[in-house]
Write a structure and sequence with these properties.
alpha+beta, five-stranded antiparallel sheet
Length: 250
């Protein structure tokens, strides 16, 4: 099987995080643009609804989108596909909401129908190329097939057993397909949290070896991060308790 098509939950989580940051930034940018738009002309509710529906259809045509519409109870609904973007209009008040993929639903009063149209157009104009590029880069940077990931995980585990075990240091190692998380207690009781990405390690193991031999804080983006833990959770406290128990036995 081509490794590009082998399912990998961990890479999906990384991409999900990248996507979340991108769309949060895009949503904030949409909100900022809204503040720059002058208020529209105050119109009666029925006229505002009519203008909104007409402008939505025009916008769909200009952007090569299909516009669907139907009414249900006291609401009128429109959708722009294939995005899809949904617009729900209250027939009595003329207030409406716009829902689009990846961002929060935005609500408008009937007098803000022009701002609503600009919201839709600004959303359509969002450039997703940076997101696509980051997604591809993440796959290239972190992805490993199952077989290679197992080899790397075993190598990291062996290094911990050899180097830290020889020093008699207590540690806990958690691993998934793409990353290892190591928590360890140095001789001076300093607790370190170490995050190791497997693909960079498969190319150069010396960074981790040097770190384990000489514990210190270090951060190499998308490769390795070692930091001192100040606030202990229950798991780390248990690790410290194990160290204390061994000292008593000695």
């Amino acid at each position: 099987m081509n490794e590009n098509y082998e399912p990998c939950m961990e890479i999906n989580e990384i991409i999900y995080h990248i996507s979340g940051k991108f769309w949060k930034k895009a949503y904030d940018a949409l909100l900022l643009k809204q503040k720059t738009y002058a208020p529209g002309q105050e119109l009666p509710v029925r006229q505002a609804i009519s203008e909104l529906r007409k402008d939505i259809r025009a916008l769909a045509k200009e952007n090569g989108l299909k516009c669907n519409a139907f009414s249900h109870n006291e609401h009128f609904y429109m959708s722009l596909v294939p995005y899809p973007i949904y617009i729900g209009i209250e027939c009595e008040t003329g207030d409406f909401s716009i829902s689009a993929p990846h961002i929060s639903t935005k609500h408008f009063t009937h007098s803000e129908y022009k701002s609503g149209i600009k919201w839709i157009q600004d959303y359509i104009d969002i450039d997703i190329k940076p997101l696509t590029e980051k997604t591809k880069a993440a796959r290239k940077k972190f992805y490993l097939n199952t077989k290679t990931a197992e080899i790397v995980s075993t190598s990291i585990k062996a290094l911990c057993e050899t180097i830290l075990g020889k020093k008699g240091l207590q540690y806990k190692l958690k691993q998934n397909r793409l990353k290892s998380d190591l928590t360890l207690v140095a001789r001076d009781k300093t607790v370190y949290a170490v995050e190791i990405y497997h693909k960079p390690f498969s190319r150069d193991s010396s960074i981790l070896i040097n770190l384990l031999n000489n514990l210190h804080e270090e951060s190499i983006e998308d490769v390795l991060c070692s930091s001192i833990v100040q606030n202990y959770d229950q798991e780390i406290q248990e690790l410290l308790d194990e160290v204390a128990a061994e000292e008593v036995l000695v």
